[in-house]
Task: structure prediction
Amino acid sequence: MRIKEVAKMFGMTEDTLRYYEKSGLIGPIKKMPNGMRDYTEEDLARIEFVKCMRGATLPIEVLRNYMELYDQGDSTFEERKELLIKQRDILKDKITDMNKAYEKLNTKIKMYNNKSLETKLVKKN
Result:
């Protein structure tokens, strides 16, 4: 599959795919005799994983480390698992913070809808 098709499939730019390859998150991608990239099913699976993890705000460095460990094979199983557990815990904290912000926004919007918004955001003692 060519880069244009892959970019469209995942809703990202060709530059992003090239960056992911250059940064070691995917690939190296095989090239056809004419020099064009030819993505395999394995490449697509990695792209899907990386896109999902980036959408969850995992840093590039963490993903690069994970992919390097993954490419080393089964001997890194526990290390990869621990890395993912740590990132899951970080993400859980972010989700908690985001939910708090979401609820705060809903409360403020309701106040606006009821025309009862307080002018002070913080009470002074």
The chain is about 65% helix and 0% strand. The helical segments are 3-10, 14-22, 41-55, 60-72, 77-113. The chain has a mean pLDDT of 93.
